[in-house]
């Protein structure tokens, strides 16, 4: 099915939408992948019954040396769907194994690109900078350990790509606190396609306190009671194929600014169920979606406890009944299924509103991810720890938020483009990725970044290499700001202070944001303030400003070049920061940055 709509059906759909809009919209699962006449601007997956399969555990691999090759595969996401072409890491037919590593012990990861065919070849958009026709058949990849304090040559820089048959050995020092990281593809201009196809996996960093073993000093669930959960939302065609197309107005092969899915996928399965014992579980969640932010809760609104963010454990568990998670963010939770009677089921649900400009196409909230069924067996017998840091726990308490010596304003923008270009351009600082006008913080400096989002939707912002503390958010009068400081032509930095245009008090970070993080949701029409300390080479054990080889992409930096292919490649240096909505990261909401001595 090519997704084209007969003109008569399209017009009829418009009429139905106009006439029945006050009544409501059709169910996303009530129609085959095609056009719901009540929602003519979105595709729908075929009807799929939830909870048909058990939640699959992700296999664990460990040791000082691991091999993780990327391969072409096929994968069955649901019993009623045929197998879909996909990609996998480490011999898996979708996603990758969970890698266990230990703080202070180096991990050598041997990576090779063994991809024989591109499952999303028709969706490659060669208008995006750094993308070529070759990418349809010779898939470029770049493995990134998200959240890792990694030397620049091993960080998976988006320009440092490998074609089929190529590979390298990544050296991960693991000189940071125990936490949950994840590894995923980061290739220039096709990250959204490669991760969607399956190139993602979790990486659990352990220490002598959080060992992951039974009887660990922190008293946390382990073994079968610790569950890595890779959460995604997807669209499927009638023949079971993964689809990155969300609407028929965008021709295949054209980049889309927003591709929310209409079914939930956990560890590679659509709406799975898991049988759980009556006791405490530790859920290590990552939002691995291309676009969607989720507000996650259990259908009975039972409380659970947040024990950690991206950078490691909190001082003590914090009770809540929901967490909001943007793409790239992780959260570490304790959930007590022992409070539920045997035979009880409870769903993990989502009720995050769809951004208005996406909802107007007819996109609805994807409501659920999985279901837990409580059995009769006794589970983990320990209770929720009172503390996780300080005292006899061994881990030092989280330090106070540092006082910055530099305040840096950065902006998050959406910009219209001319005919023949994918629009809108997603931009940081009103710049393109190919700019040389980059942030250059000094090593050892504490900075406050004011992330000014002048768009109508949230954007999860991720900084490579470093972690930070969130100090709050404030709504702003975007129109007043942009009238007072007009936006110049694309390519000219626009990073004004939004402080004169705030509309209310500074809102404290949410409980799940109270520790160290590497990704933060910058809400629409707001300032999100974070405090970052940029480490020194001595602290890291490597030079973060070292050059490392040459870019696999040749960029045109000339005036009017717009990031097209140029005449000569360039040496690589430093890291990147970007929106972790993968659709946005690919075009063009990503910039380089350097940590200078």
UniProtKB/TrEMBL annotation:
GO terms for molecular function: copper ion binding; oxidoreductase activity. InterPro entries: Cu-oxidase-like_N, Cu-oxidase_2nd, Cu-oxidase_C, Cu-oxidase_fam, Cupredoxin, TAT_signal. Residues 138-208, 252-337, 429-477 form the Plastocyanin-like domain. Residues 133-157 are annotated as: Disordered. PANTHER family: BILIRUBIN OXIDASE (PTHR48267:SF1), CUPREDOXIN SUPERFAMILY PROTEIN (PTHR48267). Belongs to the multicopper oxidase family. This is Putative multicopper oxidase. It comes from Rhodococcus wratislaviensis NBRC 100605.
């Amino acid at each position: 099915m090519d997704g084209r709509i007969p003109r008569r059906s399209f017009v009829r759909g418009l009429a139905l939408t106009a006439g029945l809009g006050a009544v409501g919209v059709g169910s996303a699962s009530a129609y085959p992948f095609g056009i719901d006449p009540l929602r003519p601007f979105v595709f729908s997956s075929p009807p799929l019954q939830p909870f048909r399969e058990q939640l699959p555990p992700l296999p664990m691999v460990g040791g000082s040396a691991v091999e993780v090759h990327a391969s072409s595969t096929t994968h069955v996401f649901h019993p009623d769907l045929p197998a879909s072409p996909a990609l996998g890491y480490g011999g898996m037919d979708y996603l990758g194994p969970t890698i266990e590593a230990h703080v202070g012990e180096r991990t050598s990861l041997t990576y090779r690109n063994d991809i024989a065919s591109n499952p999303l070849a028709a969706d490659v958009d060669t208008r995006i900078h750094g993308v070529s026709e070759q990418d349809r058949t010779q898939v470029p990849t770049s493995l990134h350990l998200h959240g890792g304090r990694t030397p620049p040559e091993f960080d998976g820089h988006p320009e440092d790509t490998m074609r089929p048959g190529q590979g390298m050995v990544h050296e991960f020092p693991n000189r940071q606190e125990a936490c949950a990281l994840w590894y995923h593809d980061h290739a220039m201009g096709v990250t959204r396609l490669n991760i969607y196809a399956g190139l993602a996996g979790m990486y659990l960093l352990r220490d002598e306190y959080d060992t992951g073993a039974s009887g660990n000093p922190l008293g946390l669930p382990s073994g079968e009671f610790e569950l890595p959960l890779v959460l995604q939302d997807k669209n499927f065609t009638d023949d079971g194929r993964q689809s990155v197309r969300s609407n028929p107005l965008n021709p295949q092969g054209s980049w889309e600014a927003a591709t929310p899915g209409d079914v939930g996928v956990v560890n590679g399965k659509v709406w799975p169920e898991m049988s759980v014992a009556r006791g405490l579980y530790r859920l290590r969640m990552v939002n691995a979606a291309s676009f969607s932010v989720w507000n996650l809760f259990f259908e009975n609104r039972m409380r659970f406890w947040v024990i950690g963010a991206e950078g490691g454990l909190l001082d003590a568990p914090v009770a809540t009944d929901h967490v909001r998670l943007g793409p790239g963010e992780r959260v570490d939770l304790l959930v007590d299924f022992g409070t539920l009677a045997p035979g009880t089921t409870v769903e993990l649900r989502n009720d995050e509103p769809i951004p208005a400009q996406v909802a107007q196409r007819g996109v609805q909230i994807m409501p659920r991810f999985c279901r837990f069924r409580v059995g009769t067996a006794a589970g983990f017998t320990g209770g929720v720890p009172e503390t996780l840091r300080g005292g006899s726990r061994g881990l030092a308490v989280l330090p106070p938020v540092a006082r910055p010596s530099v305040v840096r304003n950065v902006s998050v923008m959406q910009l219209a483009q001319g005919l023949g270009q994918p629009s809108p351009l997603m931009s940081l600082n009103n710049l393109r990725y190919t700019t040389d006008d980059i942030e250059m913080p000094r090593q050892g400096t504490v900075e406050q970044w004011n992330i000014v989002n002048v768009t109508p939707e949230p954007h999860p912002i991720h900084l490579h290499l470093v972690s930070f503390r969130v100090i709050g958010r404030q709504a702003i009068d975007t129109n007043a700001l942009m009238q007072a400081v007009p936006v110049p032509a694309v390519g000219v930095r626009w990073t004004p202070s939004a402080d004169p245009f705030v509309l209310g008090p500074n809102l404290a970070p949410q409980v799940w944001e109270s520790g160290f993080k590497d990704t933060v949701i910058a809400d629409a029409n707001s300032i999100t303030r974070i405090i970052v300390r940029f480490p020194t080479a001595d602290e890291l054990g490597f030079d973060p400003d070292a050059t490392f080889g040459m870019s696999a992409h040749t960029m045109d930096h000339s005036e009017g070049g717009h990031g097209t292919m140029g005449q000569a490649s360039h040496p690589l240096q430093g890291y990147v920061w970007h929106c972790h909505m993968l659709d946005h990261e690919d075009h063009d909401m990503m910039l380089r940055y350097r940590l200078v001595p």
